[in-house]
Amino acid sequence: MSNLLGKNETQKISKPDTKNLENQDTKKLGMSDSRAKKIKHSYKVKDAENAILLKTKYGDVIIEMFPDVAPNHVARIKELVRQEFYNGLKFHRVIDGFMAQAGCPRGDGTGGSGKKLKAEFNRIPHKRGIASMARSMMPDSADSQFFICYGDCPWLDGQYTVWGEVTSGMEYIDMLKKGSGANGMVDDPDEIISMTVVADI
């Protein structure tokens, strides 16, 4: 479904596996309001309503979003996050030096949430840590899949909707299991443990 253009070629981008935990084991442990407030402030984000905590097995990643340039994408991503849509989804396509992609419920790059988004291309460059939307060859085909850039990718600028930037924990994105071959599909990929809007913590 989704494609990202590589430097020299078009590269094809390609319900999550659940953990072996009982339902009661997956529920959040209770905590006091003061403890929750302390945890929230520890992330040091500019706007808690427009920041996401993405948990991986390697560590916590903070993505601060850009509602000023991609308001509809940011709103949709927050909606999906609050529905727990991304929890357990795989980083199914990871290319060292290029990007790590996730957000496909099928785990192979062919799925989405079922709601396409009109492109909100902007002038923010695709550089290390930038979060942008995957899409097919059609500009208005972005859905739930997104990618995080490992390095500068200027050939993507103005062609994919940039909606956020990793401001903390990029070293954990670096640790994600990489794919093989030009397509970067990963065997037994790492997963998003959870994604949470920081304001909801």
Describe the structure.
- The protein is an alpha+beta fold and 201 residues long.
- It has one domain: Cyclophilin (Beta Barrel).
- The protein has 4 helices and 10 strands, in the order E-E-H-H-E-E-H-E-E-E-E-E-H-E.
- The strands form 2 sheets. It has an 8-stranded antiparallel β-sheet with strand order 5-6-8-7-9-4-3-10. A two-stranded antiparallel ribbon has the order 1-2.
**Total tally of structural domains:** 1
Known CATH architecture:
Beta Barrel
Head-to-tail CA distance between termini: 33 Å
Approximate shape: globular
Order of helices and strands: EEHHEEHEEEEEHE
Poorly predicted parts: 8-29
Full CATH superfamily name: Cyclophilin-like
Query: What's the overall average pLDDT, rounded?
Result: 87
Number of helices: 4
State the helical fraction: 10-25%
Structural class: alpha+beta
**Based on DSSP secondary structure assignment, what is the total number of beta strands?**
10
Q: What's the alpha carbon Rg, rounded to whole Å?
A: 16 Å
In CATH's first tier, which class applies? Answer: Mainly Beta
Q: What composes the largest sheet?
A: 8 strands, antiparallel
Content of β-strand: 15-25%
Quick recap of the structure?
This protein is of the alpha+beta class. It has helices at residues 23-26, 33-42, 71-82, 170-174; strands at residues 2-5, 10-13, 51-55, 60-65, 93-95, 99-102, 130-133, 146-149, 162-168, 194-197. The protein has a single domain, classed as Cyclophilin-like (Cyclophilin, Beta Barrel), CATH 2.40.100.10.
